[in-house]
Amino acid sequence: MKRVWTAAVLLALVITGCLYNSYAVSRTAARISAPLTQAMCCASPTRAQAHLTAAQAQYDRQERYLRAVMNRQRLDTVRAGFARSQAAARLGDAAQLQLSLAELREAVLALR
Predict the structure, then answer these.
(1) Backbone torsions φ then ψ of 54, nearest 5 degrees
(2) pTM for this one?
(3) Alpha-carbon gap, residue 108 to 34, rounded angstroms
(4) Which residues contact residue 85 at a Cβ distance below 8 angstroms, ignoring those fewer than 6 apart?
């Protein structure tokens, strides 16, 4: 009987860990996508770049954890999206910036 209770407790701990991990990844994706949404609403590429930099800083802080629990290909897509968006913002190309920000935001939300 003691083994059954031990197994039940261990199973409950594993399930709790999985649920917390899902919650943490979802919360992280939401925190990264919020500045991206603000960047998409900006009219000037300079202001959008400030929001983009804030989103990238948030991603950089969480990247180590995300690499441990997420598919590497998805994270590489997000990293490439940040690079494309930063390049478009530096060039001042508002149309390309909006497109790359939309793609980046979709990639971040796909992490959920």
Answers:
(1) -65, -40
(2) 0.87
(3) 10
(4) 39, 52, 97, 100, 101, 104
User: CA separation (Å) from 66 to 58, 60, 62, 72?
Assistant: 12, 10, 6, 9
Q: Where are the alpha helices (DSSP H) in the chain?
A: 2-41, 45-69, 72-91, 94-109
Contact 29, 111 (CB under 8 A): yes
| pLDDT, tens digit (0-9, with 9 covering 90-100), for 49-105 | 999 999 999 999 999 999 999 989 999 999 999 999 999 999 998 999 999 999 999
Tell me if 53 sits within 8 A of 66, measured CB to CB: no
CA distances from 35 to 9, 14, 43, 66 (A): 40, 33, 14, 18
> Which range, 31-35, 39-43, 89-93, is most confident?
31-35
Q: Which two tokens stand for residue 23?
A: 């919650």
